[in-house]
Amino acid sequence: MTLFLLLIAVVVIVCILATRLSSKFGVPTLLIFILLGMVFGSDGLFKISFDDFIISEQICTFALIYIMFYGGFCLNFNSAKPVLIRATIMSTLGVILTCGFVGLFCYWVLHTSLIEGMLIGAVMASTDAASVFSILRMKRLNLKAGIAPLLEMESGSNDPTAYMLTIIILTLLSSGKTNIYTLIFSQIIFGIISGVVIGLLAKNYLDKIQLNEVGLKSIFVAALALLAYALPVALNGNGFLSVYLFGIILGNSRLKKKVSLVHFFDSISHMMQILLFFLLGLLSFPSQIPDIIGSAILITLFLTFVARPLTVFICLTPFRVPFKQQLFISWCGLRGAASIVFAIMTVVSPAYTNNDIFHIVFFVALLSITFQGSLLPLVAKWLKVEDDQNDTMKTFNDYSDDSSFELIRVYLSDDHPWINQTLIDIVMPTNMLVATIIRDNQMILPKGTTRVLKGDLLIMCAPGYEGNDIYLDEEYIEEHHHWIDCTLAMINPRNKFLVVLIKRDNKMIIPDGKTRIKRDDMLVICKKEYLGFVDE
C-alpha cells in the first residue's frame, strides 16, 4: 500500500512539474501526461504491468464525468448563445457525418467490414475540448468573435453523440436483441430530462440548503454530478449528455460563493485529466503500435484533411461562416481522451472486432494532439483568425477572469502624502477604493470619514481582481430584494460590511456610498464577521 501511494504521489508531482515543459516548448500538456504513462507502462522504463481494460473503463468513465461536467459548468451561455444553433448542429449532425465518412474510408481503403468501420468512425467522431482549450489557455490565443464559443460548445457537447453512436454500433455487432429505436429514444430523452431536472433543482435549492462550509457545498455538487450521470444510465439513458447539461445549467446560475466551486472543480478537472491521460498511456503497449501504424496514419490524414473539413463545410456554410474560420475550426478537431475511452469500451464489449481499435484510436489521438495541437497557434496566425480585441478567456465561466479587478497594497511610509487625511479627502485614481486598512496587525473596515495614519497598510480595489487574502461574498439582487433603489450608504448604516464591486449588465462598477442598487445586480461584499475586523 505504501509503495502504491508513493507511486501515485510521484506520478502526480512529475505530471504537474512536466507542465513547465509544456509552457516552455509549446508541447500540449495532455500529450506529456500520455507519454509519462507510456514511460511507466509495460513497454516503458518502469515496466508497470497493467492491462485491465475493465477497471480502466470504470476509472476513465469516472474521470470523464467530471471533465464533462466542468466543461458544461465553464460554458458561458451568454457568449455561446449567438452560436447555439450552429454548435448544436456541429455536435450532432457533425458527429454523425464524421462517423459516416471515416466508416466508409475504413471500409473502402482499409478493407474493414462496414459495421466495424462505422465503429471506428463513431469512436473517433468527437473532438476533445480539454486538448483544444488547454492550448488556447496556455497560449492566451484570442480568436475572432464566435470562434471560441463555437469550439467550446461543440467540443464539449459532441461526446454524448459519439457515445450514443458507439453504444448503438456495439449493440448491432454483439447481435443484441435491443431495439435500436428504443435505445436511441431512451439515450436522448432520459439524458436530457435527467440533466435538466437535476440542474434546475440544484439551481433553485442549492443556496436554500444553507451549507455553511464552502467545502461541503463543493462536495455536494460533486455528488450531484455523479447522480446526473448514474441516474440516466440506470434508465438506459445517456449519462454524459445529462452531466453536461447539468454543468451548463449550474454554471450559468446565480449561486452564492460560486467562485469556490470554480476553483474546486478546476482542480478536480485537472486531476482527472492527469489520471485519465496517464492511465491511457499506461494501458497502451507501444510494441503493438507498429502493427497498426499504417492504418492509423491513413485515418489521421483522412480525418484531418477530408472528413473534418467536409463536415465543417456542410454544417457551417448555411450560416455564412467565413471560409478561413471554417478552415481553422476544421483544424481544431483534435481527438483525445473521449475517443480513447470509447475505444476501451470496444475492448470490454462482448462484440467481436477484427482490428486493434484501441491502439488505432490511441495512435490517432497521439498524432492529433502532437501535430494539430502544436501547430494550432501558427494556423490561427496564418488564417488570420486572431483578434486581440476578443478575450477567449471570457468564453469560460471563471469568476476571477470575469470580475476584472485586483486587490493591491499601499503602505503609508513616513513621507506619504495621504497620512492624517480622511479617505473622502484623498484624491485617488478613478475606479479605486480602499477595501481594508491593516493597522497594528488588526483589520479595519473603512468608511469615508476614516483617517489613515503612518504605518497603515491599505488594501485597495482596482480593475483586475485576483485575490485570496480577503474573503469576498456575493449577494444577488432579486426582483423583490429590499435593497433595490437604495444607496450603499442607506443599506449599511452601521458599517457591518463593504460592497467592493457591483456586477451589472456584464459591467464592473467600483461603487461609493451614493451608488444606487438595481435589480439583477450582483454585489461583491467584504464582511466583518469573516475577517475578524475591529472598529476604529
From TrEMBL:
PANTHER family: K(+)_H(+) ANTIPORTER NHAP2, NA(+)/H(+) ANTIPORTER 1. The chain crosses the membrane at residues 28-46, 58-78, 84-110, 117-136, 180-202, 237-255, 267-286, 292-316, 328-351, 357-380. This is Potassium/proton antiporter. It comes from the Bacteria. SUPFAM superfamilies: TrkA C-terminal domain-like. InterPro entries: Cation/H_exchanger_TM, Na+/solute_symporter_sf, RCK_C, RCK_C_sf. The keyword Nucleotide-binding does not apply. One of its GO terms (molecular function) is antiporter activity. Keywords: Antiport, Cell membrane, Ion transport, Membrane, Transmembrane, Transmembrane helix, Transport. GO terms for biological process: potassium ion transport; proton transmembrane transport. The keyword Cell membrane applies.
